[in-house]
Write a structure and sequence with these properties.
- There is one protein chain.
- This protein is an alpha+beta fold.
- It has 2 domains: 133 residues, Jelly Rolls (Sandwich), CATH 2.60.120; 78 residues, Arc Repressor Mutant, subunit A (Orthogonal Bundle), CATH 1.10.10.
- Helices cover 45% and strands 23% of the residues.
C-alpha cells in the first residue's frame, strides 16, 4: 500500500512538499478497526496525529452515568487528535469506528518538526482546528438553547448545505437514527417523535436512512427558533 498516494490529496497535507509527504508517510502506521472497535479512549496517553483513510468514526464523551454525547462524525480524509499531539498528554474524547475503518497514525514529534519546516501544514492545522471550534460552538448552542425539533432541523440544514452551493432535497444519513440521537443529545424515542411531527407538518418525509426535505423555509424557521 502506497501511503504517500493516499495522503497527498487530503486537505491536511495540501501544499506540503513531496519530500515532506514521503517523510510523513515513512513514519506513519496504518491500522484497521472493525465496526464498534475503539480507536482511542478518553484520557488515553497518546502523542500521535490520526488521519481517517476509509470508513467512518465518531468522537464522543461519556458521563459517569453512561450517557453518551457524540461530538463529531469523521469521514475519509478527516484528521483528529490535532490538539493532542501538540498540547496535551491525553485524548479529550473517545473515538470509535461506526463501520470498518482504516486510520493512519503519525507520531506527534514528526508532525511538529514538519510543521516548523512547512508553513502550509501549520496553516492547514490552524484552519481545521478553527472549523472544529466553530462546529463545537454551534453544537453547544444547539444543545443549550434549542429543543429537539430545533436541533434536528439545524442538523438537517447543515447536512443539506454542506459542500454544496444548492440546497439538497434528498439526504442519506450515513448513521443510524440511534447514532443521530446521540449527536442531538436526545433519546431515540424523542428523535422518532420529532421526525414524525415534522413529517406530519409537511416539512420532510423519511424512508429508512433517506430524508427528503419538502419545505426548506419551514425547516429554516424551525432551526432558527422562529
Amino acid at each position: 500500500m502506497e501511503i504517500t498516494n493516499q495522503i497527498k490529496d487530503i486537505s491536511l497535507f495540501q501544499g506540503v512538499s513531496p519530500d515532506k509527504l514521503r517523510l510523513l508517510a515513512s513514519q506513519a502506521t496504518y491500522r484497521k478497526f472493525k465496526q464498534g472497535e475503539m480507536v482511542i479512549g478518553e484520557a488515553d496517553p497518546i502523542r500521535s496525529f490520526y488521519v481517517l483513510i476509509s470508513g467512518q468514526l465518531k468522537l464522543y464523551r461519556s458521563s459517569v452515568e453512561g450517557k453518551e454525547q457524540t461530538l463529531q462524525l469523521l469521514g475519509p480524509g478527516d484528521p483528529f487528535g490535532l490538539c493532542t499531539a501538540f498540547a496535551t498528554d491525553s485524548f479529550p474524547a473517545s473515538a470509535m469506528a461506526i463501520v470498518d475503518s482504516a486510520v493512519l497514525l503519525i507520531p506527534g514529534t514528526v508532525m511538529e518538526t514538519t510543521a516548523r519546516q512547512e508553513p502550509a501544514l501549520l496553516l492547514n492545522i490552524i484552519s481545521i482546528l478553527s472549523q472544529r471550534l466553530k462546529d463545537s460552538m454551534t453544537l453547544i448552542e444547539s444543545l443549550a438553547l434549542k429543543e429537539i425539533p430545533g436541533r434536528l432541523a439545524s442538523f438537517l440544514r447543515h447536512l443539506s448545505l454542506k459542500g454544496a452551493k444548492d440546497k439538497k432535497t434528498a439526504l442519506e444519513l450515513t448513521i443510524s437514527q440511534r447514532e443521530l440521537a446521540k449527536i442531538l443529545g436526545a433519546t431515540p424515542e424523542a428523535l422518532s417523535r420529532a421526525l414524525r411531527k415534522m413529517a406530519n407538518d409537511g416539512i420532510l418525509k423519511t424512508a429508512g436512512r433517506m430524508i427528503t426535505i419538502l419545505d426548506h423555509k419551514a425547516l429554516k424557521q424551525l432551526a432558527e427558533g422562529e
